[in-house]
Amino acid sequence: MSITGIASARHKLARADHHISDLEQQIRAFTEANRIGVQALSQPSRTHPGELDCEMIVQTEPPEVPDGWSLVAGDALTCLRAALDHSVFPHARQFPTLTSDVDKNGKPVKIGTILSPEVTVLVRQHQPYVAEPHTPHHHPIGALSNLVNMDKHRQLLVTNNFTAQVMIRPSDDYEITSEVPQRGDALARGDVLTRFRVKPIGLDARLEYVNFLVAEPAIDLPNTDDYRPLIKLLWDMHAAVGGIIDQLAEAGVP
Q1: Which band of pLDDT confidence, cut at 50, 70 and 90, is reported for residue 1?
Q2: Fewest C-beta in 10 Å: which of 12, 21, 154, 178?
């Protein structure tokens, strides 16, 4: 006997959980084994007397992201998308995902009745253009739909994100007066990770800082200019899909 509807959707959601958890473990092990060394260089500030202009310089070449990460991410996305579709089958061919209420020709798009008026209202409420009207492609369900469609045609683009956080340790010996992270999706040995300025307190002030960087893998979001942290995005999608399935079950979908 085949399994359909909510039960089948929950199986797919559980499989997505397996893929995301597996990928999270892979990334954690890889990044811990490939920490990127950094060094802080300083000189007297030309613009602020009595302070130091500093740069955090990358010392080791960042490793390439393993190809397998995008493949596992694609498997997780496929399971999440399937979970949505299974949740409304056989009452609808698939779970509709709309980032606009008009099609490419400007004609209105309407979602037909799915099982009951109550279920249909619920499905409409979860459309990306309704839940997040100004940025529907950033919505977890909108991003899921776009990434799954992209994964059908080419391998997903997963890269390391090197946006720096504050890496200077607090100390009574100095005050951090300014910090400007150098943003970008690429980094090489010798690049400046962040620029900052400190004000020494006392003659023997010694700068203390974290001497390594752990990169955070990110994924290119289709139809936007943004990258999103990969694992966080996958878990956000998982939570959104799981929430929809729970609400559909409460609304009476078998």
Answers
A1: low
A2: 154
